[in-house]
Amino acid sequence: MDNATIPISNFQLAFTVLLVLITGGISSFLKLGLLKPLIWGAFRTFVQLTLVGYALNYIFKFNNPFLVITIVTVMSFIASKTAVKRTPNVVNYPTMLAFASLVASTFLVGSFVTVLIISAEPWYSARIVIPIFGMILGNVMNGIAVSLDRLYSEARSGSALIEAMLTFGATPWEAARISIREAVRAGMTPTINSLMVVGLVSLPGMMTGQILSGSDPRDAVRYQIVVMLMVSAAVAIGCFILVGLSYKKLFTEDGALKQSILQSKGGLP
């Protein structure tokens, strides 16, 4: 196999602006109102990824365990704030609950993969830990955002049933069980769907990147299998923890359904 990576020059990279123009043209033609955020998002992509590239080059050389753990923790906090902002059915949600679910699922699954499966040497190798944990965080962030939003929307739509069950002596867990189940299901469904079609419909980013860099496709497939399964496990754990920490927020201290849940947008008083 030819293991030489095909470089992309600055001039070649500039051609990707044409792709932004195509997307912007479609948005303008259909009057989607997405042109401004598209341009801003593309600009941020260039700047952020360029800076990250230089930063990672330094971090990989320094390779300090405390720095690696700090970076992953900061990434987890940023992801938790982003996840909370993506929940239109929930306002004023405690970011620390999302942070706790992200940290727990990411460090648990990420450590299992880097230490036991990949056998990184040393165990805190920045070149391995940061990309692996970053992939987990991105997927869990999306999963918990969907789960949290669905938990509140399901509780609102099923409020009559929940209140009836509470009246007959059900505990908050028993009354909200259907909402809890649907919330976790919603968060896990996109990941499960990806497992069904990977390799047939899509070639995921990590696998494609390794193949483009000259790796043996069989080795790239092995890594991609690890990535897909670790993501599914982390999303399941993250959604379960978040919903488990959140469902009590639907109820008052007396075990009654909060009236704010019945409003057009859920919230925590």
Descriptive account of the structure:
- The chain is mainly α and 269 residues long.
- The chain folds into two domains: 8-62; 63-267, no CATH class.
- The protein is 72% helix and 1% strand.
- The protein is built from eleven helices and two strands, in the order ααααβαααααααβ.
- The protein has helices spanning 10-14, 17-29, 35-62, 65-85, 95-117, 126-157, 159-167, 172-175, 177-197, 205-212, 217-246, and strands spanning 90-91, 266-267.
- It has a two-stranded parallel ribbon with strand order 1-2.
- The longest helix has 32 residues, at 126-157.
- It starts with 9 loop residues before the first helix and ends with a strand.
- The model has no long low-confidence stretch (mean pLDDT 86).
Index terms:
mainly alpha; single chain; two-stranded parallel sheet; 269 residues
Short description:
The chain is an all-alpha fold and 269 residues long.
Widest beta sheet: strand line-up: 1-2
Q: Name the shape in a single word.
A: globular
Separate helix tally: 11
SSE pattern, N- to C-terminal: HHHHEHHHHHHHE
Low-confidence stretches: none
Compute the gyration radius: what is it?
A: 22 Å
Total strand segments: 2
Outline the biggest β-sheet: 2 strands, parallel
The helix content, as a percent range, equals over 70%
Whole-number mean pLDDT: 86
- Percentage of β-strand residues: under 5%
Q: How many domains would you count in the coordinates?
A: 2
Structural class of the helix and strand makeup?
A: mainly alpha
Secondary structure layout:
Elements: H1 10-14, H2 17-29, H3 35-62, H4 65-85, E1 90-91, H5 95-117, H6 126-157, H7 159-167, H8 172-175, H9 177-197, H10 205-212, H11 217-246, E2 266-267
Parallel strand pairs: 1-2
Helix pairs in contact: 2-3, 4-5, 4-6, 5-6, 5-11, 6-9, 6-11, 9-11, 10-11
